[in-house]
Amino acid sequence: MNDHSILVSAVTSNGVAGSEFSELEIRLTGDEQRRLSEQIAAVNFRLRTSSCSYKSGFHVAGDPTLLIVLAGCLRITLRAGDHRDFSMGKMFVAQDYLADGVKFSPEIHGHRAEVIGEEGILAVHVKLSRR
Predict the structure, then answer these.
(1) DSSP letter for each residue of the chain
(2) How far apart are CA 123 and CA 67, in angstroms?
(3) Which of 31, 35, 34 is nearest to 5 (CA)?
(4) 84: buried, middle or exposed (CB in 10 Å: 19+, 13-18, 0-12)?
(5) Mean pLDDT of the chain
(6) Distance in angstroms (rounded) separating the CA atoms of residues 20 and 34
(7) Which of 131, 130, 124, 128 is nearest to 46 (CA)?
(8) pTM score, two decimals?
(9) How many CB atoms lie within 10 A of CB 29?
(10) Exposed, middle or buried, 62 (CB in 10 Å: 0-12/13-18/19+)?
(11) Position 1 pLDDT exceeds 50
């Protein structure tokens, strides 16, 4: 068997400071014809559409959620101005949160989402767990 892995972008935080980008390594096992990860538990999934004019305010994910973009392009921007674009076939995990007792500060916490381009997005949201 050959071991391989894929990297999945993530928006993370320690619950107190601002959000940041990181990478999650998902190990795959199998052979040249087929490789799979271990089972990844999920709470539920939802389908999402957003128009080409969609732009959210800053927020945190709360519960870790895998987003898979099926159509269009979604830009995720952090408070520091760093951003990443996720287009058709790309995915990321939104898992930034606020620790117990920490109040959301729009100057420090969160990320925002914005549809980029003339096409709206179609995405799958998979809630991985409840925080």
Answers:
(1) -EEEEEEEEEEE--SSS--EEEEEEEEEEE-SS-EEPPP---SEEEEEEE-TT-B--SB---S-EEEEEEESEEEEEETTS-EEEEETT-EEEE-----TTPPP-TTTS-EEEEE-SSS-EEEEEEE----
(2) 7
(3) 35
(4) middle
(5) 95
(6) 33
(7) 124
(8) 0.92
(9) 14
(10) middle
(11) no
CA 33/CA 113 separation, integer angstroms: 36
In whole angstroms, give the CA distance from residue 25 to residue 8: 6
pLDDT value for 2: 58
Reference 85, options 121, 47, 46, 127; nearest CA is 121
Instruction: Provide the token pair at 14.
Output: 């320690």
Rounded Cα–Cα distance for residues 41 and 26 (Å): 13
Which of 33, 28, 29 shows the shortest CA–CA distance to 5? Answer: 28
Cα separation, 48 vs 6, in Å, equals 24
Q: CA–CA separation, 39 vs 122, rounded Å?
A: 25
